[in-house]
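Below is how a single chain appears once it has passed through the pipeline. First comes the sequence as given, then the structure the pipeline wrote out for it. We keep one example in the README because the format questions we get most often are answered faster by looking than by reading.
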Amino acid sequence: MYRLRIYQILLVLIFIISDYSLTGQSQIQELYKKSALEFKIGKYDDALITNINALKLAEQSKSCDQIAFAYLQVGKMQYYNKDRRQALVYFFKSKTLADSCKIDSIQHIVNHNIGAMYVELRITDSALFYLNTAINILKITNKYADLSKVNAVIADLYLVNNRDYVEAEKYIIEAEKYANKSNNITWVAFAKMKRGILLERFKKI
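Resulting structure:
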């Protein structure tokens, strides 16, 4: 009888935990929808607050995947609120969890975002390390739009920070190649824009 009672209590606890987890996930998804709407209309401060609230719920879930993604979203909103160093802090938190919990699905994103922050902060060696890490991850996938994007960011580094136009062109060629493979008009246009900037820079030499 005692063992049966213990079993019943454990069963109830399992259902409670499961129900809480489902409720928490649902609340997090609703917050992400809310932040997406806020972001779309340019309310970046509100979107940041909403994502911080989603992070708090994700932390309660103890789920590596949810917490890593929540850090990524907060970092993104910090960036759009023009706080690049704080964005970098959250991107690194996301990467730490992605590494320790082996979350391969976001590795290319966190490495790209960290690298992009270092480009804007003009820390070239670190930028190249993380951006090349993102490229190496993506090369074994068919995520051509992402490959185009990362190559375009490295091209920017050489165009703007280093003014090494020969090196920049190598990455623009790669950006163009993968953009065309992706059939994504946004990234095709983005790669062409980099080509246009390069041609303007060559004219000034």
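Confidence is low (pLDDT under 50) at residues 1-22.

See the next section for the split statistics.
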